Amino acid sequence: MTTVDFSNWTCPVPLRDTPNVVMGHGGGGAMSAELVEQIFLPAFGGSVADLADSAVVTAGGARLAFSTDSYVVKPMFFPGGSIGDLAVNGTVNDLAMSGATPLYLSSAFILQEGTDLAVVGRIAQAMGLAAAAASVRLVTGDTKVVDSASGDGVFVTTAGIGLVPPGVEIGPRRARPGDVVLVSGDIGVHGVAVMSCREGLSFGTSVLSDTAPLAGLVAAMLAAGEVHVLRDPTRGGVAASLNEIARAAGVGVSLVERDLPVPPAVRDACSLLGLDPLQVANEGKLIAIVPPSAAPAVLDAMRAHPLGAGAQVIGTCVAEHPGMVVAQTALGGNRVISLPIGEQLPRIC
C-alpha cells in the first residue's frame, strides 16, 4: 500500500464552506485573506513584503505609493456621500496610509445598460468635486457597458499614485510592543449610514457617512512625530485592520473597550442588527500605531485637524498573545477581537 505524504500539499482554492465565490470573499476578513493568499499571490508570482493599503515602489529614484480599489456600494447614494466621492476618497486614503502625498488617479466605470445617464452624471460630478477637495487629478480612465442582466447600476474602479517623502517608513510590520494605538474619531459610522437607507431598515436617527480624504491629517501627524503604522479601517472595520497588523508584526494588541469611540446611534444600530461595531466599515477614519514617546504630540496634531478632532488612544501593542487582538471589557474581563470571517454588511463600499 502506498503511503501518501500530505505535508507538502497546498490547497489551490479556499475551502471555507464553499468551493465557489461568495459575498464573504469580498468582506475584508478571513475569506478575503484566503482568496489573496491561496489564489492571487501564487498566480502573480509569490508573496509580497507587505499586504498594506498601497504598495511602495521605486521609480527613477522616487518612492511612489500605488493603489487600486473597486467600489460596488449599494445604494449608490447614501447619507453623507455617494459611490463617486467614495471612489476618490478611498484610493486617496489608501495612498495616504503609506505616508504618501496623493497626486494622480485613474477611473474606470462599468455601467449597466439602461442606467439613467443623469445618475452617471451625478457620480462623475461627485468624483470631480472629491478630487478637487483632495488636491488630486483624475488623469485617465475607461468605460465599459454590460447588458441589463449582467450588472447592477454603476461599478467604479480607481487607481492612484502618490509620492512618499524621504525618510517616511510606514508599514504593518513596524508595530512594536509598547506602541500606542490611536484612532482618529468615531467608528462604524459609514457602515451604519449605508445600511440606514437600505430597503426596510430604519434606525430612528440620521447617521451620515464619514467619507473624507485623510492625506492632510496624515501630513499633520507626520510633521508632529514618528508614526510606525497607518491603516484606514474600511471593510472589516477596526477589527480586521488591527488583526492584520498584529499578525504582520507578530505583536499582540490590547484594547480598552470603554475607550472605543462608538457613537450611540452606531451602537444602537449594531445592537439591533447583531453586529460588532469594531467590524463595521469606516471611510473617513484612520488607525495609527506610534511609539510611546511620539504619541502625545501625534495625538495633539490629530485633534488640531478637523478630521481628527475626535482622536483618542484606544490601546497598546504588547508582547503577549502575538497575532491576536484582545479587548478589556467594562466588567474587567477580556474578549478576543477576531478577524471577521466574511461579509457582515454586503456592498458597503
From TrEMBL:
Stretches assigned to the PurM-like N-terminal domain: 53-164
Signal peptide start and end residues: none
InterPro entries the UniProt entry points to: HypE (IPR011854), PurM-like_C_dom (IPR010918), PurM-like_C_sf (IPR036676), PurM-like_N (IPR016188), PurM-like_N_sf (IPR036921)
Pfam families recorded: AIRS, AIRS_C
BP-aspect Gene Ontology terms: protein maturation
Gene3D superfamilies associated with the record: PurM-like C-terminal domain, PurM-like, N-terminal domain
SUPFAM superfamilies: PurM C-terminal domain-like, PurM N-terminal domain-like
Domain PurM-like C-terminal: 176-321
Entry similarity comment: Belongs to the HypE family.
Protein name: Hydrogenase maturation carbamoyl dehydratase HypE
Biological source species: Asanoa ferruginea
